[in-house]
Design a protein that fits this description.
heterodimer; A: 435 residues; alpha/beta; 5-stranded mixed β-sheet; 4-stranded parallel β-sheet; 18 helices; 43% helix; B: 168 residues; alpha+beta; Arc Repressor Mutant, subunit A; Glutaredoxin; 2 domains; 4-stranded mixed β-sheet; 7 helices; 39% helix
Chain lengths: 435, 168
């Protein structure tokens, strides 16, 4: 549902069915709503059977990269005799994204159930859920839910009364966007600074504590019980024709729309329907100027591109951006694009772990140059300099934080050049900002 | 920066009694002691309100790492306070989505109401410290703020005085 708004008729509630339904937060409440049946069934299945079902469903990672989940699970070694780990990435920090928060707040047992199934499928007896430090409310709800799951025998040495051990530990982050990157998250969990690691080795070979590890996003894992209960075919059928993008996706909509919130859509829904119908359109008297469709790390779309954009992995790429985490930032005609791009660059400069030169220097200088342009002291050469920097920041670093900073700058200069020119030619009054 | 002065008293160890028991209960959950570093630092901050260099050394000894290593970790994460803070730390989200929806005005109202002269400063009465936070992950409910552990959504300048009243 477009929580806190009622479910819109064009939504397909699966994960969000029980958003706002507080009694679903207990084990008994979750079971009354059909919960934990999938886990019980899973524990009687062969792990490969579960992986095949998830593969057939077409489920792809909901954290941003869109990697096929079943395939990722199949990379885990079998019969290696080593401990395996499942890590749930609940470090939701991508500006514009606030869906995992609602999953944890309203349906903690959906996540616990998904984690337990995934753990069993990949041969892990231990699961860690890494929750960002700022999520105090989801943390306490998850803490109570995990404790109850142990008390009720859902978790522990004999999960759901089976012979399988599934342990679950919540781990609290402490304020670092970069810890949402999977290898940085693992370092953070090991008690280190959250610096991303060079890949390979990939987590399935050497991940958390050097052991085979699978790391999945909250929304991905929460979808797994539904796939097992209702079948891979049902899930794969939730699309508008493109078989590469299946299922439902929670789209977090924020910014200048009348009804911001989380909307659960079948893959392939039109962006214009989401913005103008479900979200109630722009504020009175305003028109759409730009959309950042997949969390702040993806290229900006202008109004014309947004108008024809289809919301699935391939559709948003075709429109010139990426679906990412599904955090949609909507901007109307009152928006100063130069300022917003500066503000995004400042975010990345603040969050850079500073390991790689291109990122450490690139994010900082991008911010400084944008601040200079805003202050009315920029030159036309500064735009070339920004693009040159962006080029050096793309595809050259350990992780993609640097690329994420470059994306809005490059697309912003390309699509909203006139707004930069207004500052360069003093047509617009300077804005003084901190860096 | 207007920090609360540090009282010149000898350092009292954090990890005695319940705090130590809480930390020791975490050890079996991880294959290494070092993995308990972030949780240990949270225990320090919950107990003392900030993480003093002496507390970093204490954590280091308990987890078999060096004090310099602990300091390296503390400084990486923005939520760990390296100096004393006001009784209530207010984190205000000002990242792009919230900025679009007026977070700047909300931040100004909070600074005015608390009497904090600038970001990172503590109010003269020691009640509040106000900091900017990068994306609190509630972009649809602009502007979210965290007061201590209380997460409050949809804060507007008009709501600020009423919201802060209950924090003494």
């Amino acid at each position: 549902m477009g929580y806190p708004h009622p479910i819109h008729s064009s939504e397909t509630p699966v994960l969000s069915t029980h958003f706002g339904d507080a009694p679903a937060r207990t084990v008994a409440g979750w079971q009354e709503r059909g919960g934990y049946a999938a886990l019980k069934a899973a524990l009687a299945m062969a792990p490969t059977e579960i992986i095949d079902t998830v593969k057939a469903s077409g489920l792809r990672g909901r954290g941003g990269a869109g990697f096929p989940t079943g395939l990722k699970w199949s990379f885990m070694p079998t019969g290696d005799g080593k401990p395996h780990y499942l890590v749930c990435n609940a470090d939701e920090s991508e500006p514009g994204t606030f869906k995992d928060r609602e999953i944890m707040r309203w349906t903690p047992h959906a996540l616990i159930e998904g984690c337990a199934i995934a753990s069993y499928a990949i041969g892990a007896e231990q699961c860690y859920i890494y929750i960002r430090g700022e999520f105090t409310e989801p943390w306490s709800i998850m803490e109570a839910a995990v404790a109850e799951a142990y008390a009720e025998g859902v978790l522990g040495d004999h999960a759901m009364g089976s012979k399988h051990r599934i342990d679950m530990v919540l781990h609290r982050g402490a304020g670092a966007y970069i810890c949402g990157e999977e290898t940085a998250l693992m370092n953070s969990l090991e008690g280190k600074r959250g610096n991303p690691r060079i890949k390979p080795p990939f987590p399935a070979q050497a991940g958390l504590f050097g052991r085979p590890t699978t790391i999945n996003n909250v929304e991905t894992l929460a979808a797994v019980p539904h796939i097992l209960t209702r079948g891979a075919e049902w899930y794969a059928g939730l699309c508008a024709g493109n078989k590469k993008s299946t299922g439902t996706k929670l789209i977090s909509v924020c910014g200048h729309v009348m009804k911001p919130g989380n909307y659960e859509l079948t893959m392939g829904t039109a962006m214009s329907e989401l913005i103008f119908d479900m979200c109630g359109g722009m504020r009175p008297g305003r028109t759409l100027k730009a959309v950042i469709p997949g969390g702040s790390s993806v290229p900006i779309l202008n109004a014309a591109e947004a108008d024809t954009c289809i919301l699935d992995y391939e559709g948003v790429v075709e429109a010139g951006s990426m679906l990412g985490s599904g955090g949609m930032i909507v901007m109307d005609d009152s928006t100063d694009m130069v300022y917003e791009i500066y503000r995004l660059a400042k975010f990345y400069a603040h969050e850079s772990c500073a390991q790689c030169t291109q990122c450490r220097e690139g994010t900082a200088w991008t911010t400084k140059i944008l601040a200079r342009i805003l202050a009315g002291k920029g030159t036309v050469e500064d735009l070339d300099l920004l693009l040159d920097l962006a080029d050096n920041m793309t595809g050259k670093t350990i992780c993609v934080l640097s690329d994420s900073c470059a994306a809005p700058v490059v697309s912003g200069i390309k699509k909203f050049r006139n707004e930069f020119d207004d500052y360069l030619t003093a047509k617009k009054a300077p804005v003084l900002v901190g860096i | 920066m207007n920090h609360v002065p540090v009282a010149e008293v000898p350092f009292e160890p954090v990890f005695t009694g319940p705090a130590l028991a809480k930390l020791e209960a975490l050890f079996p959950l991880y294959p290494t002691k070092q993995a308990c570093l972030l949780p240990a630092l949270w225990i320090v901050q919950e107990t003392r309100g900030w993480i003093a260099p002496a507390a970093m050394a204490e954590v280091a000894a308990l987890l078999d790492v060096t004090p310099a290593y602990v300091r390296g970790v503390v400084t990486f994460y923005t939520m760990y306070h390296q100096h004393p803070m006001g009784r209530h730390v207010i984190q205000v989200c000002t990242t792009s989505p919230c900025h679009l929806c007026g977070a700047g005005e909300t931040l100004k109202a909070i600074l005015k109401e608390t009497g904090c002269r600038e970001l990172g400063a503590t109010s003269p009465d020691g009640r509040f410290t106000v900091v900017e936070a990068e994306c609190l992950g509630a972009c649809g409910f602009a502007t979210p703020i965290l007061v201590g552990n209380d997460f409050i959504e949809s804060v507007t300048p008009e709501r600020v005085p009423g919201l802060l009243q209950r924090y003494e």
